[in-house]
Amino acid sequence: MDDNKPADTLVKPVDTIIKPVDTLVKPVDTIPPIDPNKGKQLNYIALGDSYTIGEAVPRNENFPSQLVKELTAKGLIINPPAIVARTGWTTSELQAGIKDSGFPEHKYDIVTLLIGVNNQYRGESKDVYRKEFKELLQTAINFTKDKKTHVFVISIPDWGVTTFGLQSGRDQQTIAEEIDAFNAINKEETLAAGLSYTDITPASRLALSDRSLVASDGLHPSGKMYMSWAVNVAPEVLKNLK
Fold first, then answer.
1. For residue 216, which phi and psi values (nearest 5 degrees)?
2. Residue 17: is it exposed, middle or buried by C-beta count within 10 angstroms (0-12/13-18/19+)?
3. CATH superfamily label, 41-241
4. Where are the domains of the chain?
5. Cα–Cα distance for residue pair 64/201, rounded to 1 Å
6. How far apart (Å, rounded) are the C-alpha atoms in residues 133 and 195?
7. Burial state string for 199-220 with b = 16 or more CB within 10 A and e = fewer than 16
8. pLDDT digits (tens, 9 = 90+) for 62-90
9. Cα–Cα distances in Å, from 38 out to 35, 72, 167?
10. CB contact set of 84 (below 8 Å; sequence gap of 6+)
11. SS3 (DSSP) at 113
12. What is the pLDDT of residues 141-195, one digit of tens each?
């Protein structure tokens, strides 16, 4: 061995290369849930009286048509609405009209119900109204294959603030109190049944100072007012159909 040969002083460097921690976080699955209504043609039936059929306005401006327009703009595909309604109908007359219509139950994806102004106008019993309104709620549920979340009830507007109402000889305050009493019944029964309720009555009273909310006959809502109803009901429909 050659003692004069320098020792091998080459020190192998320590492996100091630090492998980076895998900080790549896999993204959370952000794919939205499948919308069960996407691409599906939905059936809608509207039950009521003159406020549903749209007395004194073109058909495309009535409440059901404008609700369909609002929902279509949000991506739903809705067939032209079936309407069971007639000017002057009370709850009992609507019940008879539904039976005579022949529209099948368990077929509809959306049902709206607005009824009671003629019960109030004719001075009919509130107890009878409650009984018949509850029966109509069940009929509405039956139309949706028992899907309660697909039934949407709208309050009765106040006709006392219209030109007709002011000239009717009836006291405006009394009309308002009676409308409120009938609405208290339909709201109570609607919520007790677990259904959606939209209160358009306060907005209807704006017609006292804004005549553009009243149709040309001086009594019924204009297309502008029906549009405001549709704008308020549409979010409830979209939320409940998911």
1. -65, -20
2. exposed
3. SGNH hydrolase (3.40.50.1110)
4. 41-241
5. 17
6. 13
7. ebbebbbebbeeeebbbeeebb
8. 999 999 999 999 999 999 999 999 999 99
9. 5, 11, 49
10. 45, 46, 47, 48, 94, 97, 98, 101, 103
11. strand
12. 999 989 999 999 999 999 999 999 999 999 999 999 999 999 999 999 999 999 9
Task: Mention every residue, 6+ apart, whose C-beta is less than 8 A from residue 8.
Answer: none
Tracing tokens 């099948």 back to the chain, one arrives at: 104
Structure tokens at 173: 């305050």
Angstrom distance (rounded) from CA 173 to CA 161 = 10
pTM of the entire predicted model: 0.84
Contacts of 96 (CB under 8 A, 6+ apart): none
Cβ(68)–Cβ(229) below 8 Å = no
What pLDDT score does 33 carry? 43
Q: H-type helices in the chain, by residue range?
A: 50-53, 63-73, 91-101, 117-121, 126-143, 163-166, 172-192, 201-204, 223-241
Identify the three-state secondary structure at position 116. coil
Q: Are 45 and 143 a contacting pair, CB within 8 Å?
A: yes
